[in-house]
Write a structure and sequence with these properties.
Rossmann fold, 3 domains, Metallo-beta-lactamase, Chain A
Length: 654
């Protein structure tokens, strides 16, 4: 699948694995990796002839144009040969100057958790940081996820010099398969794991689309690249997924410092604590854009990795039965540590869940996880081993209905049944909005198992996000001239702004932006522009992108709340009278067989409307008749039930 190129991330502690030389491995890499370019010197030398098939604007995409495929590509060929970089010159995509002001626009992520995407403009050039998805809210039935709205970029595709991806979580890369296509595939910048996850997402979304991809790999944290008029540098951050990176964006009008998602562990398992004092030396004005989800978490310290791994090791080692660990599939380092410890004490490990198996396979190919083949097994081999020698690491800790952990607790899993002496571990946090679902899952597990462990009982999870003390700490270390809290709901951003004031940032230099606000810097001064770009939701439903609007969503909400009431009326075309009686069908409103009186009364309302609004002597406007049936029946049903089902009249003239 994916192969890590030679080199290392010296500050992150990831050493370069030995290069594999097997022919099959290289063939797999060629199929999945697409055209990778370690260096792209200028737009004049770049082959930009790869055009996306059927380029469809977000907001009105056809389903055929957005066809998904869950299969791997078969025989995709490289279209460009990788070129060796010249260490004396940064990689670049040059553009034409238009405006010499630095403009920062959050397209998503500043009023919600997810949909993270920020646009930077300078001298006619545009770069983008992250392309994430947002999961649907409770009042969005049938919606799979929400992506950033890029209407502002229509007609400016050639000005987009690159997309930098801070790390591989879906709220930062999940929209890339759709949005990269809309933007005619600008180059993407990231570390190995991030790029590999994006390529896999693209292949799952549209087969062979990765052939259009142009990549700039961050070989080392000291790399410098140029995207048009932007000079880009990087710095190490701690987060819950490997290969996360902070970004420095340099222009003559300001230096943007953006850690992406981040945390501070005062006692990391690799004993390499990340600090940020060196960023204080960057050119002024320094503009710190800081993910602020933990702004209201005032606990003095974060849970440490060392304590978490110690607890996990003790639980796995002392378990009398099978160990089942539910966690996020992106927790690659944690999963790797669990596999290593299980191997050291002679236990077998089974991975279950599509994203779990996919992510770990990618991490193995990159050399981030090293496990003996005899340690890892398929879930269908579990019964071949003693229960106390088996560890299952799976998805579903958020209580998702079709995920592995839910199927296990509901006895719907083909190979796993829970026993009383098994140990179930939730090595995950609770995503806001999932509280009830997770509580139900825990209740069901407690009925079946005596050993259910979660963070309320023991430290078996560490957050990948900062708390209030960390936010103040990083601001104190970097000493920014301007502070922009980002990547959280509005109230988190406001609380983070207060924290910035407490550690010395001037109130007039703190900006809490909404999605679509545009903040411009010139001559060291910041100005909030009066205009606001369109950042409305673009919803993805199955294969459709942007074809679910407010009307469709409102209809779904109505159906979910009060159901549907269908009336079929057959009319004699000559006499304009009803043949027989109206036929009533109800779904989610009433049970017809138990409500004959209401149904018969409704039929009389329909008959009255048809009689009053039709005549055998004149032509009849049947749309007008249907609207009257809808309004009259709707009012009648509300009077009788105080509910408003969706009324669907069907008039057939014979």
């Amino acid at each position: 699948m994916f192969k890590k190129q030679q080199g290392s991330h010296p500050a992150s502690g990831h050493s370069a694995p030995q290069k594999k030389s097997t022919k099959n491995f290289d063939q797999q890499l060629a199929r999945l990796a697409g055209p990778s370019q370690d260096t792209l010197q200028s737009s004049n030398n770049m082959n930009r002839s790869n055009k996306p098939a059927g380029n469809v604007p977000v907001g009105g995409a056809s389903k055929n144009a957005q066809k998904k495929s869950a299969s791997h590509p078969q025989g995709a060929k490289r279209h460009h040969a990788a070129r060796k970089s010249n260490p004396s010159r940064p990689q670049s995509f040059e553009g034409n100057p238009k405006s010499d002001n630095l403009r920062i626009t959050p397209i998503g992520g500043n009023e919600e958790v997810g949909r993270n995407m920020t646009m930077f403009e300078y001298g006619g050039d545009i770069i983008i940081l992250d392309m994430g998805i947002q999961f649907p809210e409770e009042d969005m039935p049938g919606i799979d996820y929400i992506i950033p709205n890029i209407n502002y970029l229509k007609g400016k595709e050639k000005n987009v010099r690159g997309v930098i991806l801070s790390h591989g979580h879906l709220d930062h890369i999940g929209a890339a398969p759709i949005l990269l296509r809309e933007l005619s595939y600008p180059p993407i910048v990231g570390r190995d794991l991030t790029l590999a996850l994006v390529k896999k997402k693209m292949e799952d979304f549209e087969k062979n689309s990765v052939q259009n991809l142009k990549t700039i790999r961050i070989n080392a944290i000291s790399d410098k690249i140029r995207l048009g008029k932007f000079e880009i540098e990087f710095f190490d951050v701690e987060h819950s997924v490997m290969d996360a990176v902070g970004v420095i964006i340099k222009t003559p009008d300001g230096t943007v410092i953006h850690p992406g998602d981040w945390t501070m562990d005062k006692n990391p398992v690799d004993h390499k604590m990340v600090t940020y004092e060196h960023l204080a030396k960057l050119p002024s004005p320094k503009i710190l854009m800081l993910e602020s989800l933990g702004a209201t978490d005032t606990r003095p310290t974060q849970k440490s990795e060392v304590e978490m791994y110690k607890n996990l090791d003790e639980l796995v080692g002392s378990a009398k039965g099978m160990v089942i660990i539910g966690t996020f599939s992106s927790q690659i380092k944690r999963i790797g540590k669990i596999i290593e410890y299980a191997e050291s004490i002679g236990k077998k490990v089974a991975l279950d869940g599509y994203s779990m198996k996919m992510n770990i396979e990618i991490a193995k190919e990159l050399g981030y996880i090293k496990a003996h083949k005899k340690t890892l097994m398929s879930v269908n081999e579990i019964q071949k081993h003693p229960r106390n020698k088996v560890v299952v690491i799976c998805t579903g800790a958020q209580g998702e209905g079709n995920a592995v952990l839910s199927r296990i607790v509901n006895d719907e899993h083909r190979f796993i049944r829970i026993m009383k002496d098994d140990t179930i571990i939730f090595s995950s946090s609770i995503i806001p909005g999932n509280e009830r679902t997770i509580q139900r899952l825990k209740d069901d597990l407690y009925r079946k198992c005596d050993n259910v462990i979660h963070s309320d009982i023991l430290d078996v999870h560490t957050s990948g996000h900062s708390n209030a003390h960390d936010i103040q700490d990083i601001i104190s270390q970097i000493k920014p001239d301007y502070f922009l809290p980002v990547y959280a709901n509005h109230y988190f951003l406001k609380e983070a702004a207060k924290l910035g004031e407490k550690v010395g940032v001037k109130k007039e230099n703190i900006f809490v932006l909404d999605n679509g606000n545009q903040l411009e810097f010139h001559g060291g001064k910041a100005k909030l522009l009066p205009q606001k770009i369109d950042t409305s939701y673009v919803m993805v439903d199955g294969l459709g992108v942007g074809d679910v609007g407010e009307v469709v969503l409102r209809d779904r909400q109505l159906l979910a709340k009060d159901g549907m009431f269908m009336i079929v009326v057959i009319i004699d075309s000559k006499t304009k009278k009803i043949i027989g009686t109206p036929q009533i069908t109800s779904r989610g409103f009433i049970f017809v067989k138990e409500n004959f009186d209401l149904v018969n009364a409704t039929k009389r309302v329909v008959e009255k409307v048809v009689k009053e609004k039709t005549s055998a002597e004149v032509s009849v406007n049947w749309d007008y008749v249907k609207n009257n049936i809808r309004e009259s029946v709707g009012s009648f049903l509300f009077t009788k039930t105080e509910r408003r089902p969706m009324v669907l009249p069907v008039v057939i003239e014979v």
